[in-house]
Amino acid sequence: MRVIRGLHNLRDEDRGCVATIGNFDGVHRGHRAILDQCREQAARLGLPVTVVVFEPQPREFFAGDQAPPRLTRLRDKVALLGECGVDRILCLPFNDALRSLTALEFIEQVLVGGLGVRHLVVGDDFRFGCDRRGDFHLLTEVGETRGFGVEHTRTFTVDDERVSSTRVRTLLASGNFAAAARLLGRPYRLGGRVVPDRQLGRTIGVPTANLPQPALSLALQGVYAVVSELPDGRRLPGVANIGWRPTVGSERPVLEVHLFAFDGDLYGRRLTVFPCAKLRGEVKFDDFAALKHQIGLDLKRARAYFANHAADRQAGDGDDLPLASAPLAREAVTSDSSAGAPADHDDG
Predict the structure, then answer these.
(1) Which residues contact 25 (CB under 8 A, 6 or more apart)?
(2) In the Cβ-directed half-sphere of 143, how many Cα atoms lie within 13 Å?
(3) Closest Cα partner for 260 from 322, 303, 304?
(4) pLDDT band with cut points at 50, 70 and 90 for residue 311
């Protein structure tokens, strides 16, 4: 798979394709259904499949910090699209120049002049261009004269409801990781490279692997029972804090993971972390001693959760990952303030 950053990096061999356009945040089952449509047409025409995405995503450009948190970073999105059989990804910088294009200019510069699109798959409610004239009808009209076909995406539903990135975010925020996995077609995961930190966890016997996270990718915030996949493929249970660590402070969001039954050096290695159950929200404690006490309770509850799941598996019930359908029962937490989760918005 080839990733093309900007129109200026297009080659002659990139012209002539079946294309689709969108955020593809999360690359959920609805997105995969769109890609299936693209692959069907690509096989019929003998052409590659190209996905056009934007960086930053348009809502992030216009709304900034008020934009919905991402489900996937660009790096992870690219990997997931590759797994879906996409041949090329055209990543366009969403900036003032791009946002200023009229609908017709976008069609001519990107679709016709740039990609030489032969067939386009988009939603029938798709809108684009600074003049807001870009829609399914205009694409069909121009396609008839410029030599490309247009078809609308098929609605993909789970439990009689359309699958969307917004719906996935809502389920994750509610602690329903099992339902989120059904919509995604896989368990939700986070990841990154382990970096050195202040090593405060070691002082209380709870060492952590710290993975910095982009603020725009913080779809979860709080303390979770997790399963982490190590570089060698092993999966270990543990506890993770996702967020800003309000008691000790942090300049950027961090995924802070404590692995049970592990003793080793992970600095510089990449981890994949699967949140399984929400234990509590992020809390600012009065002092480090109070935080230490609560961490002890978090560890105890997470161990009990995984032990119960192991018993279920022995009885023939349960999947490989113990994904909860709701947060674990709340326990009293002493604090002087609570860190609220970021607001979620519809991403269309």
Answers:
(1) 57, 70, 71, 72, 77, 165, 347
(2) 20
(3) 303
(4) low
